[in-house]
C-alpha cells in the first residue's frame, strides 16, 4: 500500500503543461481541473504518492517560475496494483513489455526503498555494461 496526498494546485493557464509534466513525472493523477470565476487561475485537484512528494513544491515552483502553488494534504492509503516481483514470461508479454520490462515497477521501487532504509539486502545490479577504461594518449 502507498500513502497518498490530495494535491490542490493553483496555476495560471500558461503553465498548465508544466504542472501536468511535474505531476506525471512523480506518478500523480489529475482528478479534475476547474477555472476560478473572475480570474485567470486554474484549480487542479490531483492525488500524489507521499513517497514521490519530497521536493515536489520546490520543483513545481521552479518549473513554473512561481506561477503555481501546491497544497498537499494526506488523503488515503491506496493499494498498489502491480506485483513487485513480476517478470514477463509468455511470448505476448515479451513482445509487449520487452525483455527487461523497461517501464519501472512502482511496487518494486517502493519495496526496495523500504528495504534499503531498514538496512536489509536489496537485489540490484550496480554495473550493467562495464568496459575497461582505455587511455587515449600514447603510452611512452
TrEMBL record:
Top-rank lineage group of the source organism: Eukaryota
Segments forming domain Elongation factor EFG: 3-88
SMART domains on file: EFG_C
Molecular functions (GO terms): GTPase activity
Matches recorded under InterPro entries: EFG_III/V, EFG_V-like
Protein name: Elongation factor EFG domain-containing protein
Source species of the chain: Pagothenia borchgrevinki
Origin organism lineage: Eukaryota, Metazoa, Chordata, Craniata, Vertebrata
Amino acid at each position: 500500500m502507498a500513502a497518498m496526498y490530495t494535491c490542490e494546485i493553483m496555476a495560471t493557464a500558461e503553465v498548465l503543461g508544466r504542472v501536468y509534466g511535474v505531476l506525471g513525472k512523480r506518478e500523480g493523477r489529475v482528478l479534475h481541473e476547474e477555472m476560478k470565476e473572475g480570474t485567470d487561475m486554474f484549480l487542479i485537484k490531483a492525488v500524489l504518492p507521499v513517497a514521490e512528494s519530497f521536493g515536489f513544491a520546490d520543483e513545481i515552483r521552479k518549473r513554473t517560475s512561481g506561477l503555481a502553488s501546491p497544497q498537499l494534504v494526506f488523503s488515503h492509503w491506496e493499494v498498489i496494483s502491480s506485483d513487485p516481483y513480476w517478470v514477463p514470461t509468455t511470448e505476448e508479454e515479451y513482445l509487449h513489455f520487452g525483455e527487461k520490462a523497461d517501464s519501472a515497477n512502482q511496487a518494486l521501487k517502493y519495496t526496495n526503498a523500504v528495504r534499503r532504509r531498514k538496512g536489509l539486502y536489496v537485489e540490484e545490479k550496480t554495473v550493467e555494461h562495464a568496459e575497461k577504461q582505455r587511455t587515449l594518449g600514447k603510452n611512452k
